[in-house]
Amino acid sequence: MSKPLKDQTVLVTGAGRGLGAAIASAFAREGARVVINYRNSKDAAKNLAAALGERTIALQADVRDVDAMAQLVAQTVEWAGPITTVVHNALADFSFNGDARASIDSLSAADMLDQHNTAVLGALNAIQATAPAMAEAQFGRVVTIGTNLFQNPVVPYHDYTSAKAALLSLTRTAAAELGPKGITVNMVSGGLLRTTDASAATPADVFDYIAGVTPLRAVATPEEVADAVVFFASPWARAVTGQNLIVDGGLVFG
Asked: What does the alpha-carbon distance between residue 24 and residue 52 come to, in Å, rounded to a whole number?
């Protein structure tokens, strides 16, 4: 079963800024109703919702909090009906600065758990809060956001990359379980993006190096990754589930 994008109600977690804002904007461009979820970026989220129009709303919730996610879903149902589509983009506080990263000898359990709680448990909470209505409708789309560092750990961000690897596993096991209910679950994995708040600390020469070794000779943008996310929610991807699409200009194959 498929549903036109204009008939979908899309929840984008962590959508107040960066890649999440680009994803929310891409769905709004296609006519979907969009819930811009934020944790702390209230002003940015509210301003984005105002800019995108009346079919968009900004709602606060910490994806790590089961009760907060249930409340967000209830608010959405009151505003626009059941959520049909979830994009789990929320990211724990993180800066892509290889020089300042925690090395393996200084990495703490708290660092690891912080990333896993948002990436993996946040995804679980979002799916559990929305899947019952999707299953009842026999239609649902879930897209998680991964990273090409899983395949190509050129900078060993141990905490971030391990969380995204676990999220890929959850993506595939969820796809296997939820497929019979009409729900597809896929991942879109970007590389370094030019530019988000998280990648703002990346030195310019790193961007230039990656562009030089990428087949398309360019670093991918948030808007380019966002378009791939929209594809997975569109009718054109109705027979695709459990997949990980890498959107990085061809830097990583596979």
From this structure: 9
Q: Which two tokens stand for residue 215?
A: 């087949």
Measured CA to CA, the distance from residue 15 to residue 205 in angstroms comes to 28
Instruction: Point out the catalytic residue in the list 38, 157, 160, 209.
Output: 160
Confidence of residue 198 (pLDDT cuts 50, 70, 90): low
Q: Which of 206, 243, 241, 248 is nearest to 225 (CA)?
A: 248
Closest C-alpha among 229, 222, 246, 226 to residue 148: 246
Tell me the C-alpha distance between 29 and 23, whole Å: 10
For residue 108, the enclosing domain spans: 5-247
Would residue 253 count as lying in a domain? Answer: no
Instruction: Kindly state the helix (H) or strand (E) to which residue 143 belongs, with its residue range.
Output: strand 140-147
Q: What is the pLDDT of residues 81-130, one digit of tens each?
A: 999 999 999 999 876 666 667 888 889 999 999 999 999 999 999 999 99
Total number of domains in the chain: 1
Domain membership of residue 254 (yes or no) is no
CB neighbours (10 Å) of residue 152? 16
CATH number where 9 lies: 3.40.50.720
Q: At residue 8, what is the residue type?
A: Q
- Is residue 195 assigned to a domain? yes
Q: Is there a catalytic annotation at residue 209?
A: no
* pTM score: 0.95
DSSP 2-66: ---GGG-EEEETT-SSHHHHHHHHHHHHTT-EEEEEESS-HHHHHHHHHHH-TTEEEEE--TT-H
Q: How far is CA 50 from CA 19, 35, 74, 153, in A?
A: 18, 12, 21, 38
